[in-house]
Amino acid sequence: MRYEAPETVESAAALLAGETGEARILAGGTDLLVQMRSDIVEPALIVDIKKIRETRTVTEEKGGWRIGAAVTGAELKEHPRLKQAWPGVVEAANLIGSTQIQGRATLGGNLCNGSPAADSVPALITAGAVATLAGPKGRRDLPVEDVMLGPRQLALGKGEFVVSFLLPPRPPRSSDAYLRFIPRTEMDIAVVGAGVSLTVDAAGAITAARVSLGAVAPRVLLVTEAAAAIVGSRLDRPAQDRLEAAARAACAPIDDKRGTTEFRIQVAGVLARRAALIALDRARSA
Ligand SMILES: Cc1cc2nc3c(=O)[nH]c(=O)nc-3n(C[C@H](O)[C@H](O)[C@H](O)COP(=O)(O)OP(=O)(O)OC[C@H]3O[C@@H](n4cnc5c(N)ncnc54)[C@H](O)[C@@H]3O)c2cc1C
Model pTM greater than 0.90? Predict the structure, then answer.
């Protein structure tokens, strides 16, 4: 196995594209190293991207935020202005693992591990985040909801990797929230995850919303019907009921020892409603 730690995006893409065997990006390693030790993956080449500056910085861009793919959850937590703009994204990243894991785990790794239960992915999707990919043919942007195609399946071409995420500018009175259900209090994989981002007008009515659900389908879902169910409302009880129903209708979960199909569908509605109420409360005071 060969280990490389290039300092530019272009050399990382060239290394990945030139490898004939299996090539993997190394970010925090909290998924990759576990999988290598369990013989689930045996890469011929590992490309560590943490020496590439762009992947390690958080910067303001065009009124929004650009977050490097190899920025860790712990680093996001230490960024007060980002946390103020996107509390849901930061809280989702900070649900990943323990304090030790958060010092390593990155947003890019969480997305590219390809798990439908990845905690930061619903939050990034509700944020309308766009992933900037780089590969041997150059760069392209892809909405986060289009990066993952199914479990362990990504829309990345040979030699492509995620360099950063762009979170759009925030209109006034906007906020977001992410909630998950796990059987334990921490260090567990989401049985259901729900993210909601919304904007309210001066009178408190919702003018825009995005809703995303994790762990209820082979990929993390952007549920446009659930968002449509609350736009125009003040999230009164009928709107909450519509949101719950739309969220549940979108679910096609597995049935396993951690949660039956019925349970996951039920919880998806409850979490979507609760996340929307938190996001609304935050938006009204934003
Ligand atoms: C004890 C423990 C607890 C955990 N708890 C949680 C949890 O609560 N919630 C949760 O969602 N996850 C959890 N995880 C899983 C893991 O920590 C997260 O998925 C984490 O975000 C992965 O990030 P990483 O930087 O460590 O990725 P890595 O392990 O470095 O990479 C993961 C995969 O993505 C690929 N990759 C990484 N970065 C990129 C990139 N920029 N472009 C293209 N491909 C890339 C790698 O090649 C690899 O296949 C846990 C893991 C452990 C060990």
Answer: yes
